Amino acid sequence: MYELYIANKNYSSWSLRPWVLMRELQIEFTEHLLRFGQTSSWADFRRISPSGNVPCLVDGDTTVWDSLAIAEYLAERHAGVWPLNSRTRAWARSAAAEMHSGFGELRSRCSMSCGVRIRLNEIPAALERDIARIGALWNDGLQRFGGPWLGGRTFTAADAFFAPVAFRIQTYALGLDAAAGEYTARLLRLESMREWYAAALDETFRDAPHEEGMLQAGSVTEDLRNA
Ligand SMILES: N[C@@H](CCC(=O)N[C@@H](CS)C(=O)NCC(=O)O)C(=O)O
Asked: Scanning 46, 97, 134, 226, which has the fewest C-beta atoms within 10 Å of its C-beta?
């Protein structure tokens, strides 16, 4: 049985990727949540993950400590992580890699906080560029491979890598065109995503750095989390 170590569901965008991928592909795992904030420290994280970061997948005596590496590790063992067709797979891998190493402004200004709704103070050009690129990328995949998922008919790692973006779009009310907006709604409607969201709302612990980052970006219009 795989052991998947993740952090707070409200905040941990990186953790969501392998979690939603494994859930959608029905790959069984035991989940361990290491909290940011009060109860966890970097030392706690490092006992599990050599980088001190999660997600981290433990499979017997093998440890895989990065979300993209986890996707590739799973792809060697389970069908469906990437699209079957080699050209589609090249596109899907490029899309996931672009998310993994790019979209810095979106990531830093609009950090994931599933249960909160925020009005941004400003939308600088760099953020507009990131949002426009996401819309163009999603439209490209949906048109090229026919949807409903980025690589065609089935949910793959490319979709899993953008799942946290769907929560960011919801939190910060980021504007996208109709097709990209529908794709966002499709991600949010997945049973696994609804389960993650419900668990995020139920989390009562708060991580000060994440909360402060959010308040620098904008003002909270709604906080749907349980107190
Ligand atoms: N590139 C890594 C990034 C992982 C990462 O930054 N994880 C954050 C959580 S979302 C973390 O573990 N932070 C530890 C901490 O802040 O103490 C991946 O893809 O897994």
From this structure: 226
Residues 128-152: what's their mean pLDDT? 98
Q: For a substitution probing ligand 1, which of 8, 12, 13, 53 has the most ligand atoms within 8 Å of its CB?
A: 53
For the CA of 36, the closest atom of ligand 1 is 17
Cβ contact 73:57 at 8 Å: yes
C-alpha atoms less than 13 angstroms from C-alpha of 147 in its C-beta half-sphere: 14
Q: Report whether 103 contacts 168 (CB < 8 A).
A: no
Q: Report the first-to-last Cα separation within the chain, whole angstroms.
A: 34
Strands 56-59 and 2-6: antiparallel
What is the Cα–Cα distance from 153 to 142, expressed in whole angstroms? 10
The predicted structure's pLDDT at residue 40? 62
178 Cα: distance to centroid of ligand 1 (angstroms): 32
> So what's the pLDDT on residue 36?
77
- Find the range with the poorest average confidence among 2-6, 12-16, 153-157, 212-216: 212-216
* Rounded Cα–Cα distance for residues 136 and 179 (Å): 10
> In the numeric block, which tokens belong to residue 74?
């799973």
Ligand 1 atom closest to residue 12's alpha carbon, by position in its atom list: 10
Average pLDDT over residues 177-198: 98
Distance of CA 201 to the CA centre of its chain: 16
Contact between 92 and 137 under an 8 Å Cβ cutoff? The reply is no
Asked if pLDDT for residue 38 goes beyond 60, the answer is no
